[in-house]
Design a protein that fits this description.
It contains twelve helices and 22 strands. By secondary structure, it is α+β, with helices and mostly antiparallel strands. Among the domains are: 155 residues, D-Amino Acid Oxidase, subunit A, domain 2 (D-Amino Acid Oxidase, Chain A, domain 2, 2-Layer Sandwich), CATH 3.30.9.10; 84 residues, Arc Repressor Mutant, subunit A. The N and C termini lie far apart (55 Å).
């Protein structure tokens, strides 16, 4: 029996695992997919929100601001990309100023540092490509951008290095209350734990409702996005928001930490908890709304589109804690935006709650830092030449769009919780995320995966499960 089982390997589950790994406890993460970061955490705006949008006094507000404060040091400790670039909420006319002022007041009450309302002329000076009709904006210098893949993977790798066990391709199907703890029936056998952390994203209501009569309901809220080529990456230098509505912050335009430009999302409530397909209507909405705040968007430079699901709980609030009638079951549910920003604070909150309940003691040998995959571009010419001399794989470019080497891909496969699929390599190295979207590098990456994993190339998948790319050879009929 484990001390704690965490359901879900997204940013919330990985953050809880990392914080719990500070203590003397046996912890296991059960993830239904073949890797971490396969759900909501892989498809979002990649924004570190300042914290002016959430209702003052709410968990969302408290954990947003705290998570924002924690992110910079965490990025240094765990070696993932994060930049504090600031954000602007655009107001297009004087009639909408009360909404902007309300956001400002919320931000002040929530403790967001440095926010202020600036004039349209100031906005244009800061962002030359902002719409000519801008009237004013709320400027929040503490907002930032992050790589959600690297954040999630870094948290999980560090948790693993500190003793947390990860079980992939393990879908929880039923939860049974025991005299002490819980028994989890999965697609790969039965697991028992004294405590369970429910960090299952859009499925968190399903697991909560298995053990509690106090039912919750989560709606998958689909968001469509367009990603533009790096040639468009400097069109704006800050995250540009619209004034929010009841469905969220509207369509944003933002640079990414990797130099692209991201436009989206929509906010479309659906029934299907796996419904991550884009739609023509959704993408048309993204394109039309994005142009309201930023002029001359080079939409011809779109290299891909995608959709993600937000776990929208009916009360529009994070649910973190133990239900009255389900002792030992800790919800981490309804984690929609600003969930990515809040994840470090969520992990800390859940770990402290369990520490107090279980009387956990801290480890003396906790490993607080982690080193990410080496980026040869960060080296001097001399250092890179020496690296290639010692390890020739770093001189072999596999993905020419992103200039990713064989050495980086090998590292992604061999490191803790290493990549097992094309998407696993892509999220760790960006091989396949460039302009051609894997058109040229996929076969070579598959060869490296097959070689490193010791499997047949026909067994390599795009994203685990049945997503095989090779279904036969062109000589089969001969």
């Amino acid at each position: 029996m484990y001390d704690v089982i965490i359901i879900g390997g997204g940013v919330s589950g990985a953050a809880c695992a990392r914080e719990l790994s500070r203590y003397q406890a046996s912890v296991c993460v059960l993830e239904k997919e073949e890797d971490v970061c396969c759900g909501t955490s892989k498809a979002n705006s990649a924004i570190v929100h300042a914290g002016y949008d959430a209702v003052p006094g709410s968990l969302m507000a408290k954990l947003n601001v705290k998570g924002n404060e924690m992110m910079e040091q965490l990025s240094k400790d765990l070696d993932f990309p994060f930049r504090r670039i600031g954000s602007l909420v655009i107001c297009l006319n004087e009639e909408d100023m009360p909404g902007l002022e309300e956001l400002y007041e919320r931000g002040m009450e929530n403790g967001v540092p440095g926010i202020r309302i600036i004039s349209g002329e100031e906005v244009k000076a800061m962002e030359p490509n902002i719409t000519d009709s801008v009237y004013a904006a709320l400027y929040a210098p503490s907002a930032g951008i992050v790589c959600p893949f690297n954040l999630n993977i870094a948290l999980a790798e560090n948790a693993y290095e500190n003793g947390v066990e990860f079980q992939f391709d393990t879908e929880v199907e039923d939860i049974v209350k025991l005299d002490e703890g819980y028994e989890l029936h999965t697609s790969r056998g039965t697991y028992q734990a004294r405590y369970v952390v429910n960090a299952a994203g859009v499925y968190a209501d399903k697991f909560h409702n298995m053990v509690s009569e106090e039912k919750i309901h989560i709606t998958p809220r689909r968001g469509d996005y367009c990603l533009l080529d790096k040639s468009a990456g400097n069109h704006v230098s800050r995250t540009i928001f619209s004034l929010p509505t009841k469905y969220g912050k509207g369509v944003l335009v933002t640079p990414t930490v990797h130099g692209n430009l991201l436009v989206g999302p929509t906010a479309i409530d659906i029934e299907d908890k796996e419904g991550t397909n884009t739609t023509r209507e959704g993408l048309d909405e993204v394109i039309s709304k994005a142009g309201q705040n930023v002029k001359d968007l080079p939409m011809r430079q779109v290299i891909t589109s995608f959709a993600g699901l937000r776990a929208h709980e009916d009360g529009t609030e994070f649910i973190i804690g133990e239900p009255e009638d389900a002792k030992g079951f800790i919800d981490c549910a309804g984690i929609e935006s600003p969930g990515l920003t809040s994840c470090p604070a969520i992990g800390e909150m859940v770990a402290e709650l369990l520490r107090d309940k279980m009387g956990l003691e801290k480890k003396e040998n906790f490993i607080a830092t982690r080193k990410g995959i080496l980026d040869p571009d960060t080296l001097t010419k001399e250092e890179r030449a020496e690296l290639i001399r010692k390890e020739p794989a770093y001189g072999n470019i596999i993905c020419r769009c992103e200039m990713i080497t064989e050495g980086e891909i090998i590292d992604a496969i061999r490191r803790p919780l290493g990549a097992k699929s094309l998407d696993g390599v892509k999220r760790r190295t960006r091989a396949g995320m460039g302009r051609c979207q894997s058109g040229f590098c996929s076969p070579r990456t598959m060869e490296i995966l097959a070689r490193e994993l010791g499997v047949n190339m026909a067994d390599i998948t795009k994203s685990g499960g049945t997503s095989r790319l090779v279904v036969g050879t062109n000589k089969d009929r001969l």
